[in-house]
Amino acid sequence: MSSSIIELEHVDAGYPGAVILRDVSFEVKRGEVFILLGGSGCGKSTIMKHMIGLNPILAGTLRVAGMEWSTKTRDTLYHKIGVMYQSGALFGSMTCLENVMLPLEEFTRLKRAARRDRAMELLADVGLADAAGKLPSEISGGMRKRAA
């Protein structure tokens, strides 16, 4: 089994009618820290959107956790990856607890009480049990990132 978490082989990335990046190849192995660095407009966000499946690649091969990314594997892979946005992606009208419960509602068959218990465990794991009832606007930026 490959130790690579993400592999891109000769990937063209962009949008229909507009290739932004051509022939991109790299891999990220388990445990590695990988930085995508470049100037404004060079394609960092574009390649990331392709890597997490928001946009289909135009050419080449993309593997995530050893599985080739395709419409057939998308739902399976969505359960294996997560994305941490720089600003923390929380719904401002929902409490921290409700934000953490939301994906549990979407992707598990847990009953509401079990979802709440699990969400409280997760908040406690990142030191946010006391912030469960607070809105994102009521906590610090670092706390928002941990909640996300």
Question: What labels describe this entry?
Answer:
alpha+beta; Rossmann fold; elongated; single chain
Q: Using the CA coordinates, give the radius of gyration.
A: 18 Å
Query: What is the CATH homology-level superfamily of the largest domain?
Result: P-loop containing nucleotide triphosphate hydrolases
Shape: elongated
How much β-strand is present in the residues? 15-25%
The first-level CATH class name of the largest domain:
Alpha Beta
CATH topology of the largest domain: Rossmann fold
Number of helices: 5
Count of DSSP strands: 4
How much helical structure, as a percent, in the residues? 25-40%
- The CATH architecture classification of the largest domain is 3-Layer(aba) Sandwich
SSE ordering = EEHEEHHHH
Task: Tell me about this structure.
Helices cover 31% and strands 22% of the residues. The chain has 2 domains: 4-78, 3-Layer(aba) Sandwich (Rossmann fold), CATH 3.40.50; 96-147, no CATH class. The mean pLDDT is 86. The longest helix has 14 residues, at 112-125. The protein is α+β, with helices and mostly antiparallel strands and 148 residues long. Helix 3 crosses helix 4 (112-125). It contains 5 helices and 4 strands; from the N terminus they run ββαββαααα. It has a 4-stranded antiparallel beta sheet with strand order 2-1-3-4, covered by helices on one side.
